[in-house]
Amino acid sequence: MNKIILKFINVCKIFIFIALFTFNFALYAQDNSNFKQVEATGRSILLPENIETSRKRALEDAIYLAALQGGANVNGFSAIGSNTIINDQSIIKPTNRVLDFKILSETQNKEYLTIKISAIVGSELSKQNCKIRPININLFKGSITVDTNVPSEVARYTSLWYNKTYEFISILPNVNINNFQNRQLNQIIKSSQNPSFDYNAITKGIPEMHPGNYSLVPKIFLTKTNKNNINYLLLTISFDLYKGQKIKLETSKSYNLLINYQLESKFQFLKNVSTLHLDKINQNVNNHLSESINSFFYDINCMPLEGKLIISEGKLQVDLGSKQGLKQKQIGLVNGIKIQNSMLNDSILIVHTEDVFDNYSTLLPLNDNVKLTNLNDKIVKFVE
Fold first, then answer.
1. Radius of gyration of the chain (CA)
2. In a 10 Å sphere around its CB, with 0-12 CB exposed, 13-18 middle and 19+ buried, how is residue 54 labelled?
């Protein structure tokens, strides 16, 4: 009967873990998009003797009006003469700026030259939305390190915590796991360099390392420490996250838990570290693992979705697709692009997805004046 109750409690814990992850992410992942696509029409007086000046003024007007659609501040003041208010005035300033634009049409009549544009308006490029998207993880064999001065009654729990880490990761709602718990990542790296002479590569094959996917190695450390003459156990769970085919280290994060237990004397050890106390330690560690994994994978979702641009069959492509979270018409930013005759000071180019496939997408630049060959090997960063 007790086993049935314990099994029921464990199942409930798993459901609570999933619910907390989803709820916390919903709080974090509110729509804070800093970019929007707008259309605006600018107009200037037609100067027959200087069409280029008229065109420039109309385009400046369109860009200003586009920026206003992204938000504006209105500052009012009064003109005063001889202590009498003559009239009220307002100054309207855009709170956003045009990052890139495309001319949709240009018309003129006897009086005016008119230009209509499509523009991407945004504020801060550094901000990244944290929205749930598919995360593809190759989960490799980790490690357990326990100091020799850690009490054996606690040390034996580390293998349970290690397995719990994999269990918690495997049930995350937006994470797709390729389980390679019995294989070490550094061995995979060696195998990929020379698979012909590697036994594991021949017998087990080499896991697929897609450019937009990740590889993860969890590690657990347990040490004994002393703070203010009180003995503690310091548990550290760390995650080394690698990205892409080159298995480049993307980030490494650690989460610490200080476990309080006091040894009054070495003769009272068994009394102080009783079964009840061990159960409490185990519960605290499991909570810590759950919170750490939630936090770590939330941070992954906050990482910009970025890839390398290539030219294939005359089309602009990126090695990311729907399996990595890309969507139709999703906007991407390419830095360091010089655009001739641009009205904007920034060297930012806007692209958007045209066709999205499983593991790659075709893209179109917003600006028609950009040569696709100038974008080859550039990095594109996608935003919502």
1. 29
2. buried
Phi, psi of 20 (to 5 degrees): -65, -40
For 145-183, write each residue's pLDDT tens digit.
Answer: 999 988 888 899 999 999 999 999 999 988 999 999 888
**Residue 366: DSSP 8-state:** S
- CA torsion, points 57, 63, 65, 67, in degrees to nearest 10? -150
How many angstroms separate the CA atoms of 233 and 220, rounded?
Answer: 13
Cα Dmax for the chain: 102
Q: Six-digit token pair at 109?
A: 């009549």
Give me the sign of the Cα torsion angle 338, 339, 345, 350: negative
Mean of all residue pLDDT scores within the chain: 78
Which CATH superfamily includes the segment(s) 35-72+89-122? FlgT, N-terminal domain (3.30.1660.40)
Cα 94 to Cα 102: distance, rounded to the nearest angstrom: 19
Return residue ranges of the chain for CATH 3.30.1660.40: 35-72+89-122
Q: How would you label 312-338 residue by residue, b for 16+ Cβ within 10 Å and e otherwise?
A: eeeebbbbbbbbbbbeeebbbbbeebe
Pick the closest to residue 305 from 295, 322, 320 (CA basis): 320
* Residue of 333 and 378 predicted with greater confidence: 378
Please tell us whether the domain made up of 305-383 is placed in CATH 2.170.270.10. Answer: no
Structure tokens at 143: 């490690």
- Provide the whole-model pTM: 0.69
Q: Identify the burial level of 101 via C-beta atoms within 10 angstroms of its C-beta, where 0-12 means exposed, 13-18 middle and 19 or more buried.
A: buried
